[in-house]
Amino acid sequence: MYPSRGNADAYKSAAIHSGVELPPQRKLALLLSGAIDRIRLAETQIQNGQISEKLTTINTVLTILEALRASLDHDGGGEIADRLSSIYTTAEARLVSANAQNDLEGLRAVVRLLTPIEQAFRQLATPSASEPPTEPPSTPTSRHA
């Protein structure tokens, strides 16, 4: 019922080989943003009668949600991890149902469910102006007499 892990493995491989390490909150925001974008694409695909393309798109979203759920640290994350797991599971179930029925409103409901989480992770990943920079700026060492 769930798609293969091919997309998650491709993401993991790209992250490893890119040499760029993103903060975990940024990674989560990007994954959720990608899922939301793909759900919106699936809406368009339904409207255009592109059913096989929609299936591929929804499977990608399910893979992302499965990876997000599997990455939760229930021991360290406590109630927050449990709540996110429940939200991801609900989103998966709604996606499967919306997929089977070509239900645009069902897809929109999943977008409404995931958007606040994506926004929260995006805010967590953005340093506030009151936080000190991670590295102090370099100062010139010129000497004028």
From TrEMBL:
It is found in: Cytoplasm, Cytosol. Keywords: Bacterial flagellum biogenesis, Cell projection, Chaperone, Cilium, Cytoplasm, Flagellum. Signal peptide: none annotated. Residues 124-145 are annotated as: Disordered. One of its GO terms (biological process) is bacterial-type flagellum-dependent cell motility. The keyword Cytoplasm applies. Its main location: cytoplasm. CDD domains: FliS. The keyword RNA-binding does not apply. GO terms for cellular component: cytosol. Belongs to the FliS family. NCBIfam families: fliS. This is Flagellar secretion chaperone FliS.
